[in-house]
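SEQUENCE-TO-STRUCTURE ENTRY
===========================
Question of interest: how does this chain fold, as expressed in backbone structure tokens?
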Amino acid sequence: GPAQRSFATKAVERFEVRGQPVPALSTPIYTSSTYILESAEHAASLFTVEGVAPGQSPWLYSRWANPTVDVAARTVANLEGAYATHLTASGMAAISVSLLSFLSCGDHVVVPYNVYGGTHEVFTHILPRMGVQVSWVDPKDMVAYEKEIKPNTKVLYGETPSNPLLTLMDLEALGRIGKARDIVTIVDCTFASPKLLTPIPTFGIDVVVHSATKYLGGHSDLVAGAISSRTKDLHDRVFSSLKLLGGVCSPEVAFLLARGIKTLDMRMERHCKNAHAIAQFLEDHPKISRVYYPGLRSHPQHELALRQFPHGGFGGMIAFEVKGGVQAGKRLVESVKLITLAVSLGGVESLIEHAASMTHAMVPREVREQGGVSDGLVRLSVGVEGVEDLIFDLKQALDQIEISLSS
């Protein structure tokens, strides 16, 4: 009997949790890599399209699916208005997997030239090496965008608001073009979050990707990505790639992500309110030559912003140019005291960075400037601190920059 089993066996022997199912209020972190199967037939059914019978466990192996990750993924899908969501190990994993799910050798993709630096590298270094043709376009000109479509175009890619200039893309037009041409549309909406923008139900976009590291997580303590699909077919194609490429989200990260999402609504309200006030302060400051924020009337796409963000929030991201160029920009980001000099964004704390030398350092200067990212551009991720404290910090930092105001 069990009492006669060896010490080694006793140490490994599995005990069931008492009182199953446990009525826990918080979703447990299921760290198990694999799951107990009822029978060989049960295992075989997990590999079929039909799936398991009612009442059977749907879990096989955590690279395929994990209970904790599944809960967080369903939460994101619910916010997105999507058929379903897959969570990935990072935002770049979400972007890469979504592209590789719909592109093959000989295919063509259309992409805006002012995308995030990491995304830019995928389109310049990885996809061409696989035999995928890439056409670069101005995201503000959807007529020109549509003209780039070829017989072998399989993906229309977008990013809105863009990183770091807050350029908007007309998603209504993109969704219409994709549907009319029967081409998959993929949009990165990291800067907006599902609180401000839900492209799948609103504009008929096929796939929405997020760096969940940013606003969805919201606390600068996790790295993850999300791929939300409009239909089961799109979702299945993404799953086929994700389970083989392997860049899945861990249960520990999924737990933190689900926890962060609970406060997304109230965080985004504060991010937007603070950012709008700071953007107005910067626009009126004599040492700032230009401010990029969709909520300002001076933003060239303000009318589109009003249509695309009907709830009145324009996000927590601001980009601006300091008079005096590179040196003035660097002096500013090194002089703030409350705001932190760091890459990334979307957390509760305010972060500032110099785009040319940090997030877009991998983008060639001529390409970067074509996208409007000048040498002196500063990007500010506005947190949820007291707005008066943030404005005071920016003011004292700007006071340390000595420039000719006529420049």
